[in-house]
């Protein structure tokens, strides 16, 4: 009762008569009109701008900074990129070079990058919500916005939206892209790149169609259980098969295997009596250029082109190994392993040496009963179910299409479409990294195998995957920076066949195709002298004593060497260097002497090269004691003029040498024919 | 009034939430059974990595007793400035008295101080401070160029894959960390040496000119890298104003 009367009197006070009512309504109207300006006045960004002005007041360059400062909301609007960024409203000092010492946000100067902020805006690289004007909405994902700011460790992913190829300055992105192809991720996951091509795997998982020739069922079982137990460098992930599954898959693979004629021929030759002969043959053949072996200290020594050989004796069958060493093409015509022309005794010696590299623990606990038809059938079912044929060729099983989710646009997958496992922060980068770290965490029924990437590798992979996003597909074509994909170059004719037999392309690159371990040979014919090439192929001695990885000797016949030499000298010519435009000999002693002085004083070439083995010590560049018998004078001359033009990326700097200096140095270098004894060797 | 109430509410909510966050972030150190009296660095100090990324090697510290013997089972906790993540943050030393943690640096280029702590028998805190360096884009670019063009001579350490040429040079090049010398040289002087080589500036002719090989941007990147890893740290000269 009392309450009602109170309310009535209150009402009467406000609206009792028309004057009161008018006054009250006006007041309410005035207040409500003031709400919007007040909200604006107390807004977050104004607060930051005031803070900024306060901060710069005390600085020496206050006047300049004050002049640059523009109040109100700032905006970078780039319609063709879909960018509306108001970040500069609060991040006022982004372009102020003098604020380099300021570490408080949002006033830090932007670190130096190759792009202009006005041209690209902010969200192109950092993600987040450009048009938002509060800290929360701009940086975090809220109900209305889905794109949080990208953590700095993944920032290189944004470079990858436009830069489709390896880029100096983005090592994380480069590494991530490399891991995606080298670990076979793209065997199962399709990745369509914005240029229309599909990412191709660079690893080469072996065919399993003839596996019974090569190894035992016990080894397959042990390998399936844990590939890392056999080789620390194994790229095959762990599928976490239980004993029954591993038993049945190994049963199926052995039963499914068909023999290859000639790949298990035992030889009658006897191994060399000297027990160290195998080790020296392994060393002389530079097997370590491609294959790694764990030494007693547990460190891997050797290359990663071929499989690790630490426990190879526990894996391969002796007859298969002999046949493989004799000619690997019999078992696998596509192999990266060269066909060494070993004689039978060498084969037996080397095979014996490798066979001794075994680990008795590996197969000690593997006891398999003969397989039953049910087991084989179940094994086949598992092989299909786990998509083994995505990576391996297995006769009778088709390579599955789209076996795993397509990752072409994974970098802009909406967070509400993801299933997060417990404790995982709800962001896309965290999801991707978590998935790579523990693929089956969100549900035990998933099939993705367990990899053993380091935390840094996971970050690299996540970076590469985040670069595959909607924006990368919708960018104006003028912005994209394409790369040069590997060509399909194949040398022709008999020499071409020989080069494939020797697997030259496993290490050397020619016309955009091949490996990067050894020098690019595209212009080798312009570079070297014929006789040197012949001698080199007979007995490749290294030009760079500091290198571990070297060219092996293939024991070629004279006819083969001639075939190769003719082809290289004729076909692999640089358009810029005419081999015959300069004589190889006949330089005047004055010119040679002038060259010597230039070499030692003006250009100080001895800091990296050795001409006189007694006094010169530099060994970054190749030794030049016999360079006059090795290189063509035209090549040397052009190298002096601009080394980068002949071998992009070489450490040797361009000296912008005068023609006279280049000619004198060429004369001096071409005079270095090596001593008679050295030549005989 | 309501405004104040709201504010109060916000403040208390904020305090509560940060309090909770703190709790989850720094787990209490596992109970330790042993105590040392000194903390020393085993490895992992002075590393270089791009901003936000994991340092190539873990940071390993060792707890020693007064005789200098390693103490297994002693508690160690790491801490760092905002943005640094440590995995794990704390634990006890292993059988060799060591404790390792993986460190990711923050989002801003510069130096980060990582602090390792342990307690001695008297429950007094023993600290060890380590410094790590985070590189921004420009410095990462410089780092890569350094690897390609400079490192073989300017770094005296050899690896099996990369033999150093340092010892072969009659006039020794300055390692880029040598702040004592390089900090005295201005950016223009360094640019000139890289551009024109040693002889042009009356220095060793063993340093060749790279001005025709590297672009201006690349040389700037290289210098920013040299400044970033300098020891003692390089201080940018303040702005110079013209005086009457």
What's the CATH H-level superfamily name of the largest domain in chain A? Cytochrome c-like domain
What amount of the residues of chain B lies in strands? 15-25%
Largest interface (C-beta under 8 Å): A-B, 44 and 49 residues
**Biggest sheet architecture of chain A:** 2 strands, antiparallel
| Uncertain stretches of 5 or more adjacent residues of chain A | 676-681
Please write the CATH class name of the largest domain in chain B. Mainly Beta
Number of domains of chain A: 6
Shape summary of chain B: elongated
End-to-end CA span of chain B:
58 Å
Count of DSSP helices of chain B? 5
In helices, the fraction of residues of chain A equals 40-55%
Count of individual beta strands of chain A:
6
Specify the structural class of chain A: mainly alpha
Query: How many DSSP helices of chain A?
Result: 31
SSE topology sketch:
The complex is a heterodimer of chains A (681) and B (244).
Chain A lengths: L1 H14 L2 H24 L2 H14 L4 H7 L7 E3 L4 E3 L31 H4 L2 H4 L8 H5 L16 H7 L8 H12 L2 H4 L22 H4 L2 H9 L1 H4 L12 H14 L20 H8 L7 E3 L5 E3 L15 H9 L17 H12 L17 H13 L42 H10 L17 H12 L3 H5 L18 H9 L7 E2 L2 E2 L9 H4 L2 H9 L19 H14 L17 H14 L24 H4 L2 H9 L1 H4 L12 H12 L5 H5 L1
Antiparallel strand pairs in A: 1-2, 3-4, 5-6
Helix pairs in contact in A: 8-20, 9-20, 12-14, 14-18, 15-17, 16-17, 19-20, 22-25, 24-25, 26-30, 28-30
Chain B lengths: L1 H24 L12 E6 L4 E3 L8 E6 L10 E5 L5 E3 L2 E3 L5 E7 L5 E10 L5 E11 L1 H18 L24 H4 L4 H10 L19 H13 L16
Parallel strand pairs in B: 2-9
Antiparallel strand pairs in B: 1-3, 3-7, 4-6, 4-8, 5-7, 8-9
Helix pairs in contact in B: 2-5
Give a short synopsis of this structure.
Chain A has 681 residues and is mainly α.
Please describe what this structure looks like.
The complex is a heterodimer of chains A (681) and B (244). Chain A is mainly α and 681 residues long. Chain A has six domains: 2-41, no CATH class; 44-149, no CATH class; 160-202 and 404-479, Immunoglobulin-like (Sandwich); 211-377, Cytochrome Bc1 Complex, Chain D, domain 2 (Orthogonal Bundle); 493-571, Cytochrome Bc1 Complex, Chain D, domain 2, CATH 1.10.760; 579-680, Cytochrome Bc1 Complex, Chain D, domain 2. Chain A has helices at 2-15, 18-41, 44-57, 62-68, 117-120, 123-126, 135-139, 156-162, 171-182, 185-188, 211-214, 217-225, 227-230, 243-256, 277-284, 318-326, 344-355, 373-385, 428-437, 455-466, 470-474, 493-501, 524-527, 530-538, 558-571, 589-602, 627-630, 633-641, 643-646, 659-670, 676-680, and strands at 76-78, 83-85, 292-294, 300-302, 509-510, 513-514. A two-stranded antiparallel sheet of chain A has the order 1-2. In chain A, strands 3-4 form a two-stranded antiparallel sheet. In chain A, helix 14 (243-256) crosses helix 18, helix 16 crosses helix 17 and helix 19 (428-437) packs across helix 20 (455-466). Chain A is flat and about 125 Å long. Residues 676-681 of chain A have low confidence and may be disordered. Chain B is 28% helix and 22% strand. Chain B has five helices and nine strands, in the order H-E-E-E-E-E-E-E-E-E-H-H-H-H. In chain B, strands 2-9-8-4-6 form a five-stranded mixed sheet. Chain B has a four-stranded antiparallel sheet with strand order 1-3-7-5, with no helix packed on it. Chains A and B meet through helix 20 of A and helix 2 and helix 5 of B.
